[in-house]
């Protein structure tokens, strides 16, 4: 497919089962309708470069064609065989290109981009990739998966792998995006379960389970109930890669204790899935109880943070609802499922205290929106005056969503 190209993917909330999902236990996640990442691929001004502009993480880097000599055709051609494991030959070839970014936060984003780009598009130059996200980055809401999905869809299209139906993304194409975004997630954080990229690809909500042979099973939950909840971002930075490897270390040190915790978390997710499939006034309290238990188990794994405990303590002391961290923890976000009798005054007071006293950010957002999407070339060209400034200026999150949010903005997306 030719340029320009525009792709998008949502963030997610894990309701039950973060961390245990990495160890093949079931988990439930839903996409977040209003928190999305957008990728705009255009012709670079210089036809000799591949340019990456990721302003959200202050990364703007160009690779000139002369620097690409380490990338052998063999490494790229073989990459499809490596769709489950990273290709060691390609990794070695990327090293010199990534050297200037070593030790920085931007390294993993650039690694994900280069890996997918060379695997799916080859050595083509004269291309610029610009990413903007309306989702907080590194906060537990799946920003890494949404960028990996945007990149997998765009590089899949640009490389000619995803052009079977002009009017929609087919099941096979979505599976392709899911497979390659999982590889992208591997570049960003090592050993992902695959739940985040599955939700960002397919949208809605999923009951997900990684199998012992590395395959994944994800069951779409189409009518995910709109559970009343508040998402709170502590704005405390953390890295999923570091937190996941901390849990692995705990398992090595305390296997008899950690394994049963992970198993119990799987039980919580399975029970939670049954309740969510038939949520009603009678079992709502059970759902809240499972949220409380899941958080306690995550605390036992060592992935909470005093800043997250502030949210839980406030919700508990106001008897407003049940709180658990969501995503990898260690900072980032928590969700509070509101009690059915929580008053609007108490909800407002809860949010206000978190925002004014602790400088946290709260969100009230719908769950279960669309998955990845792209825009037809004609549509982009007809609205370049609306789209281009969003990627070339310091556009705010609301300006971004006003134009680009599927279903809200004036433009049509293809799903
Ligand atoms: N908009 C973006 N622009 C550039 N890089 C991004 C963007 N969003 C995410 N990333 C990459 O993803 C990394 C954050 O991923 P990480 O998995 O740690 O957090 P998360 O995905 O937001 O949370 P969780 O995995 O708990 O859901 C960033 O350091 C960066 O490398
Ligand atoms: C912590 C984790 O379970 C969820 C991160 O959103 C990691 C993963 O499943 O890849
Ligand atoms: Mg992530």
Automatic annotation (TrEMBL):
Record carries keyword Magnesium: yes
Listed Pfam families: GHMP_kinases_C, GHMP_kinases_N
GO cellular component: cytosol
Reactions it catalyzes: (R)-mevalonate + ATP = (R)-5-phosphomevalonate + ADP + H(+)
SUPFAM superfamilies: GHMP Kinase, C-terminal domain (SSF55060), Ribosomal protein S5 domain 2-like (SSF54211)
Subcellular location: Cytoplasm
Domain spans labelled GHMP kinase C-terminal: 276-348
GO molecular function annotations of the record: ATP binding; metal ion binding; mevalonate kinase activity
Enzyme Commission number: 2.7.1.36
Keywords, in A-Z order: ATP-binding, Cytoplasm, Kinase, Lipid biosynthesis, Lipid metabolism, Magnesium, Metal-binding, Nucleotide-binding, Steroid biosynthesis, Steroid metabolism, Sterol biosynthesis, Sterol metabolism, Transferase
Keyword Cytoplasm applies: yes
Pathway: Isoprenoid biosynthesis; isopentenyl diphosphate biosynthesis via mevalonate pathway; isopentenyl diphosphate from (R)-mevalonate: step 1/3
Domain GHMP kinase N-terminal: from-to ranges: 120-203
UniProt record, GO biological process: ergosterol biosynthetic process; isopentenyl diphosphate biosynthetic process, mevalonate pathway
Family under the similarity heading: Belongs to the GHMP kinase family. Mevalonate kinase subfamily.
Record function comment: Mevalonate kinase; part of the second module of ergosterol biosynthesis pathway that includes the middle steps of the pathway. The second module is carried out in the vacuole and involves the formation of farnesyl diphosphate, which is also an important intermediate in the biosynthesis of ubiquinone, dolichol, heme and prenylated proteins.
Protein's name in the database: Mevalonate kinase
């Amino acid at each position: 497919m030719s340029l320009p190209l525009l792709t998008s993917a949502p963030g997610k909330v894990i309701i039950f089962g973060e961390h245990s999902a990495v160890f093949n236990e079931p988990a439930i996640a839903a996409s977040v309708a209003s928190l999305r990442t957008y990728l705009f691929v255009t012709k670079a001004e210089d036809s000799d470069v591949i340019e990456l502009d990721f302003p959200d993480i202050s990364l703007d880097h160009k690779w000139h064609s002369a620097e690409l000599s380490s990338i052998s055709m063999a490494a790229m051609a073989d990459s499809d065989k490596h769709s489950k494991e990273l290709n060691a030959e390609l990794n070695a070839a990327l090293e010199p290109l990534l050297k200037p970014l070593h030790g920085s936060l931007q390294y993993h984003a650039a690694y994900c981009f280069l890996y997918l780009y060379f695997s799916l598009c080859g050595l083509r130059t004269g291309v610029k990739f610009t990413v903007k996200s309306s989702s907080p980055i590194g906060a537990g809401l799946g920003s890494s998966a949404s960028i990996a999905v945007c990149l997998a869809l765009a590089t899949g299209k640009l490389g000619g792998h995803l052009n079977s139906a002009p009017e929609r993304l087919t099941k096979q194409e979505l599976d392709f995006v899911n497979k390659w975004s999982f590889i992208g997630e591997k570049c960003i954080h090592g050993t992902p379960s695959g739940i985040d990229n599955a939700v960002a690809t397919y949208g809605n909500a999923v009951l997900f389970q990684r199998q012992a042979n590395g395959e994944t099973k994800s069951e779409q939950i189409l009518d995910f109930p709109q559970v009343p909840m508040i998402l709170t971002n502590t704005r405390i930075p953390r890295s999923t890669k570091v937190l996941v490897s901390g849990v692995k270390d705990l398992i090595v040190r305390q296997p008899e204790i950690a394994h049963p915790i992970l198993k119990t978390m799987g039980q919580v997710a399975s029970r939670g899935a049954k309740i969510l499939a038939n949520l009603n006034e009678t079992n709502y309290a059970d759902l809240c109880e499972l949220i409380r238990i899941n958080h306690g188990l995550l605390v036992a794994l060592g992935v909470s943070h005093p800043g997250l405990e502030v949210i839980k303590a406030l919700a508990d002391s106001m008897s407003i609802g049940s709180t658990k961290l969501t995503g990898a923890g260690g900072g980032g976000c928590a969700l509070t499922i509101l009690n059915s009798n929580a008053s609007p005054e108490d909800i407002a007071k809860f949010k206000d205290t978190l925002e004014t006293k602790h400088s946290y950010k709260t969100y009230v957002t719908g769950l279960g929106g669309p998955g990845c999407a792209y825009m037809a070339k004609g549509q982009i060209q007809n609205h370049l005056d609306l789209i281009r400034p969003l990627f070339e200026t310091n556009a705010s999150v609301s300006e971004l969503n006003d134009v680009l949010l599927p279903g809200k903005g004036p433009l049509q997306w293809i799903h």
